[in-house]
Amino acid sequence: MPPFVSGPGQRRLPKASGNAVGIPVHPRIKEIGLRMATMEISGSNARAIAVLQAFGDVIADYITPPNTTLGKHLSIYLSPQINFLVYQRPMCISMANAIRWLKGEIVQTSHDLKDDEAKSQLFSKIDGYIKERITAASDIIAESGAQKIQDDDVILTYGASSVVQKLLLIARSKGRRFRVIVVDSRLENEGQRLVRKLVDAGFSDSEVVYAPVTALSFLMRDASKVFLGAEAFFANGNMLSRAGTAMVAMAAHSYHVPVIVTCETYKFNERIQMDAVVSNELGVPDRLMYKTNAAGAEPVGPQSDNNSRLRLLNLMQDITPPEFVSVIITEVGLIPTTSIPVVLREYKNQI
Hints:
By secondary structure, the protein is an alpha/beta fold. Helices cover 40% and strands 13% of the residues.
């Protein structure tokens, strides 16, 4: 198997060690972990917000043991909670960055503060992070992206991005008339959710086109702009997103259609990743063979029971090279992929 094995049936719950032995998993963490495992909570923004809010509940119920301080022990207490979340579904970049930030804030908590005061301070910081780095950032990006849509544009998007959905609705609320092409793929078929939102918002049947990714090259001829969501950007400019995004960006590049990516800066990562083989998330393998959404699902491919040499590989993400991205819309403005290290350095200097 490839080095990134982390799918269902392949993960192992890490054993607690050291001071973390005997620490129970909080019920709120169990709830969020199971909802993420069943894809009820999906999308990097939704997962990051859910985890931060869950950790807020954990901190509220936390009691500092004697002969230690909240700043020293709380990080240890959170370790089994994080392990449980990773066991349910591999951690995305946005979650990892948010948890790393929270641990840093916990360590910096003054030892002179009483527990109630320290908790109140952490609650305020968690709320501030969600509002400033996620919620407000996505609103700013959506407003900025909506300005790029003009009358008679044909916007092509892939899957369902919450920020892309928001900017499309804002552009329509400002009276702009344009068409939207939603390209989708198995297994999640996220684009169906976006189509429903657009139709409910007043888009007519002639203004919304839904098509499988196999029709991409045909539909790209009509597109004037491509809007994509991103799960993360790495320091070398590579973009991590749902599987199939790289193919859409490459097709747009070959047809000379600008690719506009929406991404909050908290999703930027100092790591460098060259391809989707080094690290990836594995989906449920059997979903490649079975129509799981249909009653009495029937296999649509060879069954592994009949062929012991068959190994299924359901990759959830892919890497888009920076040359396929025209511009990134962030809360700090429109930037090229080459400016990602600069943004990372500036935020690091502010800490």
